[in-house]
Amino acid sequence: MKIGIVGCAGRMGRLLVAEVLAGPGCELAGGSERPDSPALGQDVAVLGGGQPSGLKVTDDARALFAAADVIADFTMPAATVFHAGLAAETGTAMVIGTTGLGPQHQAAIDILARKAAVVQAANMSIGVNLLLGLTAQVAKALGEEFDIEILEMHHRHKVDAPSGTALALGKAAAAGRGVDFDAVAQRARDGHTGARRRGDIGFASLRGGDVVGDHTVLFAGEGEQLALTHKATSRAVLAKGAIRAATWVAGRTPGLYSMRDVLGLA
Questions:
Q1: In sequence order, what DSSP letters do the residues of 20-33 get, joined into one string?
Q2: Which residue out of 2, 56, 158, 171 is catalytically annotated?
Q3: Is 197 helix (H, G, I), strand (E, B) or coil?
């Protein structure tokens, strides 16, 4: 299984390289970076803590797609859409873990996934994907008499808020209740907001330190509360899930898949 990593010199990119090197049945196809990256020309395997492989970091993403069975992408929204276009051109399968995607980015990926097999998830961790399923089940069972608040905290360098995982949890809760997520999402509160609207799903985002990712879904009712919490202590769990998705998606028919498909939870 030849797996290529776009954005291979970033924090997640290096973890993905390391996971490919450690993964049974996996072979590193190479890695790419943006044209101005100082990592260009460096050995890809060394970036992931491995022995020299002879594979050099390139800015030719198209060539990387042509050489790989699957590409893993944890970059930026615009770059991910460009890479999805390359997947559609080459028929190469793809795993997308990029967050912060806007509606226009997602619409483009949805269209391009008609020509290539794509696994996309806001969070590749197995624990988080189990949490998504539990959130939907609890939201359905408790109903609107329980207010839903989603609290997330990440490291100081994270650029989007709420996190993609928090939004995915909100969508899972909305699906459990059978309501339109956009109609009930309350992403920010400031000043004199008035009483909480029944049925809303609220979000709170904290940033600081080196927190990998903490997410809590709080169901607050009259006289009782229920909290579902997941804490990631290492980004390696994201890389492990992504490479598991990569080995699953290779050879699949074109379409957009989720981690629930990968884990057999769909």
A1: HHHSTT-EEEEEE-
A2: 158
A3: coil
Please give the backbone phi and psi of residue 64, each rounded to the nearest 5 degrees, phi first.
-65, -45
- pLDDT per residue over 145-195, tens digit each? 999 999 999 999 998 999 989 999 999 999 999 999 999 999 999 999 999
Which residues does 150 contact at the CB level (< 8 Å), separation at least 6? 162, 166, 169, 170, 173, 201, 202, 203, 204, 215, 216, 217, 218
What's the longest Cα–Cα distance across the chain?
63
What tokens appear for 32 in the block?
Answer: 């790419």
Are the C-beta atoms of 230 and 87 separated by less than 8 Å? no
Tokens of 116: 């290539």
Which residue segment(s) compose the domain that 74 sits in?
A: 2-120+235-262
Q: Name the active-site residue from 154, 171, 230, 240.
A: 154
Single out the residue of 64, 111, 108, 120 nearest to residue 82, CA to CA. Answer: 108
Residue with tokens 């997941």: 230
CATH no. for residue 109? 3.40.50.720
Evaluate if residue 99 carries a pLDDT over 90.
no
Determine whether 154 is an active site residue: yes
pLDDT given at position 100: 86
Q: Catalytic site residue 215?
A: no
Task: Tell me the residue type at 15.
Answer: L
On whether both 11 and 116 belong to a single domain, the answer is yes
